[in-house]
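Bumping my old thread because nobody answered last time. Still need a sequence for this structure:
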């Protein structure tokens, strides 16, 4: 069983503060209007000071009391090539259309990128286009609409750094790795965190018979002394290429390139790849140890 089929929708990612969604009519306006009323009803009934599970149970109870179709903590699993990749468990699914993600963060008046990203992951995997982030912690409950539209996949590649140094057998391996990365991009699209893409690529590469080692261990050396071994988040493929997987960044940072060059030298490898599943495109950069 594979993951969710790749079905591009070209509007792109939109994350909106408050109720503003440009000049468009609010997405699922009637449904979310009713949900907002129930959120305030839960908060007014319980007031402040409770944990997330308390607000969760009260919310589920009130939804059922209003005869609204609701599923509490639906667990859904992503599989690839018969291997479990990740378990998704959003807080509440309503009408099979809207995800509610509940938080109790008394000292936080804005949601972080990580919290928004978590909800986007759920929306993307469940193939839904709207979720509500709800913070019951502050004096006034905070509700944020998060919209998700699958961006059309485009690919940007740059191998100038390694092309002059590749032997023919190196090119063969590179073409294979590239093909498997593009396969994952086409099937799963953009929007997941790097941990998921890293596992998907490792599974795909191993499935096709290439040796793939995850969390490559590297021993740093300082002043001639070996320091404790570090487990990196890189993949080593076919003993030739070291691969760094990033996601959701606009582009890889200088740190990613500096770090992988350092690792290549310590491992005695020549070539690396920095791969970024950004919010707009799949980016692949070749990196040389020199």
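Sorry it took so long. Here it is:
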């Amino acid at each position: 069983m594979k993951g969710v089929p790749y079905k591009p929708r070209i509007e792109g990612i939109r994350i909106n503060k408050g109720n503003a969604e440009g000049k468009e009519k609010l997405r699922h306006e009637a449904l979310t209007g009713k949900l907002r009323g129930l959120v305030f009803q839960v908060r007014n009934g319980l007031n402040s000071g409770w944990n997330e599970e308390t607000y969760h149970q009260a919310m589920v109870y009130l939804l059922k009391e209003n005869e609204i179709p609701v599923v509490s903590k639906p667990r859904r699993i992503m599989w690839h090539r018969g291997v479990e990749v990740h378990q998704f468990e959003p807080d509440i699914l309503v009408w099979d259309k809207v995800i509610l993600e509940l938080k109790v963060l008394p000292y936080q008046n804005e949601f972080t990128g990580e919290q928004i990203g978590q909800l986007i992951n759920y929306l993307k995997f469940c193939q839904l286009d709207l979720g509500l982030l709800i913070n019951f912690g502050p004096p006034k409950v905070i509700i944020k609409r998060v919209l998700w539209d699958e961006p059309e996949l485009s690919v940007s590649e740059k191998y100038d750094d390694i092309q002059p140094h590749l032997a023919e057998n190196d090119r063969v391996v590179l073409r294979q790795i590239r093909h498997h990365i593009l396969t994952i991009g086409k099937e799963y699209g953009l929007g997941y965190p790097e941990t998921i893409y890293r596992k998907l690529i490792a599974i795909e590469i191993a499935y096709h018979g290439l040796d793939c080692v995850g969390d490559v261990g590297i021993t740093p050396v300082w002043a001639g002394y070996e320091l404790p071994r570090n487990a990196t988040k890189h993949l080593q493929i076919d003993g030739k290429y070291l691969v760094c997987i990033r996601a959701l960044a606009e582009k890889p940072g200088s740190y990613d390139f500096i770090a992988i060059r350092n690792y290549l030298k310590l491992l005695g490898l020549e070539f690396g790849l920095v791969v970024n599943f950004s919010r707009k495109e799949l980016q692949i950069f070749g990196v040389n140890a020199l």
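The radius of gyration is 22 Å. Let me know if any region looks off to you.
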